[in-house]
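Run: sequence + DQA -> complex structure.
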Amino acid sequence: MIYVLNGPNLGRLGLREPGIYGSSTYADLVEMCQTVADDLGLTVDVKQTNAEHEMLEWLYRAADEGADVVLNPGAWTHYNYAVRDACAMLRGKLVEVHISNVHTREEFRHHSVISAVATGVIAGLGFDGYRLALEHIAR
Ligand code: DQA
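>> structure
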């Protein structure tokens, strides 16, 4: 199982700042990840939460299973040490994905507390970032 985990506000894709995140919805993202995974012969579990404790439990499960994770931590990226510490427990790959190019945006988005414990980072490629992350994991 590969986990595709999405943090706060990502359930609002399509409604949320479409000029930045596009007009496709979270349901579209889930469908795309599932289609890409099917094509690659992977099994994915795609989820979103606004609750930190839930994200931590999902990361512990991935750690226990030695599973690979694609993670868009949303705003937690920039300040959440508990999510980072849970990411540090992972034994599989961790690909950090951002839909927008965080480096062209506000200064507070330029730093990620997650990246130092990630295998790699993809930012600014829209939903394609998830596709590329899954393709990387499949190789
Ligand atoms: C984001 C970028 C974050 O700065 C922001 O808080 C998000 C989404 C992205 O996918 O571009 O919620 O992770």
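>> summary
The chain has five helices and five strands. The chain has one domain: 2-138.
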